């Protein structure tokens, strides 16, 4: 019997592509070419499965051009690049990579919070530019992390990881807002108190965004929400571009209506709103919250394992939908 045909749509670790070749007839993308939707569709015309990353859109038009496609395995925990309803209706399985990146991403959330509150990149640029000639009492004076109030919007696995770091490692008071309250045992574990969004924005010294992107979470933070925050507060976005109105944030930073922001994700990335590039009080990183070698390997391996298990008949390991099986050739 011939092997299922798989497209690995972006470059990933070569040895993991080799592992896939033991099970599948694989077309890879070792040069990491960024295909247009039309180019991707042309490659999917004869494929049974695809390994995607968070930046590849899978929608009804793509599915219509891929009549044999049965599974899209995303190498990301977020899957807002998938039109899940269209996939379910077309009988296409979607999978993601939860859990394996939780702790690494929570570490990074904290790294970005610390860099932002303590003005690390701004002060390094100053030093490298040869501007450090003397000590002064207020040079790069930032805000404290220990003992401050951390407000987390989105209390899934990563949010909980950040809460634990804040409460247990830095003695922070942790408040959170989420679609639903955590079970009491989880709240106790994270030492976190549930509050309304407005109270969180008014009270927190540091606001951390970890909410998945959807139409409902689009611009969770816009001009009105920024206006509620303390002028001394920092805002950290490790969730998705589009959760924050980047244009409104650039205005709030320039006018110092909030003290600083740390952003790993952007509306329209890899483009970044030009006004964010010119304000000093923002730390900008290129969507690297999950980027450690062990974690990126674990993500790629889990995406590969989903494909292998699915075609072995064991079912997907980490499904994001439940399509009716057998709708596809
Ligand atoms: C990915 C992410 O690196 O897992 C996610 O949801 O945002 C990142 O870990 C990115 O989406 C590329 O797949």
Automatic annotation (TrEMBL):
<dbReference type="GO" id="GO:0005829">
    <property type="term" value="C:cytosol"/>
</dbReference>
<keyword id="KW-0520">NAD</keyword>
<feature type="domain" description="D-isomer specific 2-hydroxyacid dehydrogenase catalytic">
    <location>
        <begin position="6"/>
        <end position="321"/>
    </location>
</feature>
<feature type="domain" description="D-isomer specific 2-hydroxyacid dehydrogenase NAD-binding">
    <location>
        <begin position="110"/>
        <end position="289"/>
    </location>
</feature>
<protein>
    <submittedName>
        <fullName>2-hydroxyacid dehydrogenase</fullName>
    </submittedName>
</protein>
<dbReference type="GO" id="GO:0051287">
    <property type="term" value="F:NAD binding"/>
</dbReference>
<keyword id="KW-0560">Oxidoreductase</keyword>
<dbReference type="InterPro" id="IPR006139">
    <property type="entry name" value="D-isomer_2_OHA_DH_cat_dom"/>
</dbReference>
<dbReference type="InterPro" id="IPR036291">
    <property type="entry name" value="NAD(P)-bd_dom_sf"/>
</dbReference>
<dbReference type="Pfam" id="PF00389">
    <property type="entry name" value="2-Hacid_dh"/>
</dbReference>
<comment type="similarity">
    <text>Belongs to the D-isomer specific 2-hydroxyacid dehydrogenase family.</text>
</comment>
<dbReference type="GO" id="GO:0016618">
    <property type="term" value="F:hydroxypyruvate reductase [NAD(P)H] activity"/>
</dbReference>
<dbReference type="InterPro" id="IPR029752">
    <property type="entry name" value="D-isomer_DH_CS1"/>
</dbReference>
<dbReference type="InterPro" id="IPR050223">
    <property type="entry name" value="D-isomer_2-hydroxyacid_DH"/>
</dbReference>
<dbReference type="Pfam" id="PF02826">
    <property type="entry name" value="2-Hacid_dh_C"/>
</dbReference>
<dbReference type="InterPro" id="IPR006140">
    <property type="entry name" value="D-isomer_DH_NAD-bd"/>
</dbReference>
<dbReference type="GO" id="GO:0030267">
    <property type="term" value="F:glyoxylate reductase (NADPH) activity"/>
</dbReference>
